Amino acid sequence: MSSMQLRTLTVAVSMVIAGAAMAQEGGGTTRFILAASWQPAFCQTNQKKAECASQTGERPDATNFSLHGLWPMRQDYCGVSAEQKAADKDGKWNTLPEVTLSAETQAALSKAMPGTQSGLERHEWTKHGTCTKMSAEDYFGVGVHLLGALNTSAVRDLFAANIGKPVKAEAIKAAFDKSFGPGAGDRVKMSCRRAGNVKMVSGLTIGLSEAAGAASAKSAGLADLIQGAGKTTFGCDEGVVDAAGF
Fold first, then answer.
1. pLDDT digits over 84-94, tens only?
2. What's this model's pTM, rounded to 2 decimal places?
3. I want to staple 30 with a disulfide (CB 3.0 to 4.6 A). Which of 21, 46, 172, 207 is the partner?
4. Burial of 208 (0-12, 13-18, 19+ CB in 10 A)
5. Dihedral, CA atoms, 167, 238, 235, 181, nearest 10 degrees?
6. CB burial readout 89-121, b (16+ within 10 A) else e
7. Do residues 191 and 235 make contact, with C-beta atoms less than 8 angstroms apart?
């Protein structure tokens, strides 16, 4: 085994051990991640993407979280061909197989996930959805349902009330606790990105229990799924809530 392989193995083992300890500390185990984007911040550095070029202040993603994906922990590209995996990693998402959904789910997904304009749903299904036991209809149905719960919470209200202003980790965690129960904020991580000299909130990743991986999660309470996950570190401690437009 080369030194590089040994270092890689050591890092991987450390991550597994750290993850197990974190889950034990939190009284639960994180099996899924709900990834929610703040689309205006994403678009600041991806202005040529179709969903960014067409963004307006009136569109839902200007004042609500957008669905990035629902990710099983430590699994990806299950049963996916090498060709499709390579195309996905190269960002050639529109060459991936089309995701077949009911008209109702497709309409809801297009609203919740503006990235469908760039084939994001094909990427999410190829990389993550294939590692669940759900159909594409159920997989995206669960994601849309959980995002809806986030967007009717104190967390979304906090972000919408502070567009153009910075928000701190403590306020966001308190909003999660208010809507989803004490300790919910300890199961969330925030990501930020810089656009010029401004550090912006780009999104949240929310830990969920194993129950998020079943079709029944389309009617489950987000609070219960969060409470069944393990704790994590919050990540970025402060960022600006970006407004739509460049």
1. 999 999 999 99
2. 0.88
3. 207
4. buried
5. -20
6. eeeebeebeebebeeebbebbebbbbbbebbbb
7. yes
